[in-house]
Amino acid sequence: MGIGGSGIGIGGYGGSDINASCYVDGTSGTPIILKQKNISSITDLGVGHYILNFTADLASETFVWAGQADKGSGVADMTGTHGLGTIARTVSSLTMRTSTSSAKDTRFSVIIMGA
Description:
This protein has strands at residues 18-25, 32-37, 39-46, 49-54, 64-70, 88-89, 93-97, 107-113. By secondary structure, the protein is mainly beta. The protein has a single domain (17-113), classed as Immunoglobulin-like (Sandwich). It is globular. The two termini are 18 Å apart.
């Protein structure tokens, strides 16, 4: 089964290869997980800096991840995917940065594969 039940894979990965994913609303100041797969909670470490905690540990910390953040103006920014943000990977969590600006992102999504 692929993304959204379409059977379409991403770069050789299919939907069953997605280890974790989430869609988060940060507009209220406290991030709220709107949709998730294998994400138990989110920790807000400051502006655009989060820890995503996995419900079940991944097999390895060598997973790949990608994401997108919306600053509310339709401008997408996910500095972590460009290596500019703080990223730490463990089998139980992903520490990530969506922005290096002083403004909170309104919403962001992350997908984790390959563990």
